[in-house]
Amino acid sequence: MKQIFAIDDIHRMMRRITFEIIEKNPTIPDLLLFGIVKKGVPIAKLIQDNLERHEGVAVPLVALDISNYRDDAKRQSVVLPRIDVTGKVCILVDDVLFTGRTIRAAMDALIDMGRPAKIQFAVLIDRGHRELPIRADYVGKNLPTSRDERIYVDVTSDHPGIYIDRNEG
Known about the structure:
Layout: E1 2-6, H1 7-24, E2 31-36, H2 40-55, E3 61-64, E4 89-97, H3 101-111, E5 118-126, E6 138-142, E7 150-154, E8 161-165
Parallel strand pairs: 2-3, 2-4, 4-5, 5-6
Antiparallel strand pairs: 1-8, 7-8
C-alpha cells in the first residue's frame, strides 16, 4: 500500500470544498451535514470545522448509517436519526465515490427523513467506475483507478493520509 496524499493535502482539499460549499449556499444556517458512517463522518467533521472557522456558523453534523438502504448487503436494524430535513440543504459526505451505490442508499435514507430543499454531495476522492448516474457536487480529487485497485482514506490514525493498494503480486 502506497501513500498518495498526506494529511496536509487532505486539509487543502477540504478547505477548497468548504469554500465551494460557501459559494453555492449563501444561507449557511440552512445547511445540514450528513457524514456517511463510518468513513464519511470524519470528513464531514473537517467541513463542519472549516465552516465554523470561516463563516462563524456551527452547522449540525449527523452520522448517517445507511445499512438498511444498501442493495448489496444484509439488512440490519438501524434507526435513522430523528432530524427534520424538510426545507434544508442537506450535504451528504463520504470519503470515496466509486460505483455510486453508497450515495444512492444515503439519498434514500435522507428522503425517508423528510423533503429537503436540496441534496448535495461532497466526496474527498472520486475514483470513477460508476454503476449509477451519480456525480458529486464537491470533489477533493479525481483519481482514476482500475477496478481492482483500492483507495483508503485515513484522517483519524497516527498515520493519516490517502493510500492506494494496487494489488500487485
